[in-house]
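Lab notebook, bench 4. Still working through the backlog of constructs that have no structural model yet. Next entry is a single chain of 278 residues. Request: give me the structure tokens for it.
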Amino acid sequence: MLKLGEYQELTVVKRVAFGVYLAEEKNTETRVLLPEKQVPADTKIGDTIKVFLYKDSKDRMIATTNTPALTIGGLAVLEVIEIGKIGAFLNWGLEKDLFLPFHEMTRKVEAGDEILVTLYIDKSSRLCASMKKLYDLLSKESPYTEGDIVNGRVYEFSDNFGTFIAVDDKYSAMIPRHEDCSKLRVGDVIEAKVTKVKEDGKLDVTLRDKAYIQMEDDAELVMQIIEEFAGVLPFTDKASPEVIKRETGLSKNAFKRAVGRLYKERRVEITERAIRKV
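Model written out:
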């Protein structure tokens, strides 16, 4: 059986002026063309050639000895070449660009963007790219340990869990949901610190600096917010985590540390229901 989107070793069964036809040894009736410009020198009937199978611009299955950047079930970062009426076209190293339908995007893409995608066969038996369902394709066997600094690409946001990151574009990682990632978007490449390696091998990472460094930035952020509230913040660190997160973008613990610093510096006073600028 000829397998679209995969590498196969096929046998040369016929030579024509514009290339050779390849087939499986057990099924020589189903053939695929390897264009002449890709036929290795001195190729003869009966030779075996390793090829990748895809569809050309006329939707015909065709073989190539070129190496695509992506195969079925794999992951790769591809550049957006062009935006069409129903999707985008990506460069994956073959004569025909790879189609990314709008409904398989997790955000709007633009020409020049580099995005992490997988390859699948759609209902019309065409090879297409998808920005979705990448989670299960990422490796859980990273070489990293707690404290390591890593680079990763944002590929999905979850209200229940956090921000999903592909470290080195291949290892599974996540920024927990309590951390503010509102300024990030799918496709962003970030530098983060590994805070935990879970039992299943997945990584927890953070964008935040060490607490004592981050506290200074958080304190200034809280002070700015207090000033925006005309000098009186109508809640304290006893408020619910949801309220604190909504109003400041900080976790409850980070907010408490920031307020504590401002209080020690005598820049605010804390009442039962509010925090006031001094």
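Notes after review: The helical segments are 211-228, 241-248, 252-264. Residues 7-64 form a domain with the OB fold (Dihydrolipoamide Acetyltransferase, E2P) fold (CATH 2.40.50.140). Flag for follow-up if needed.
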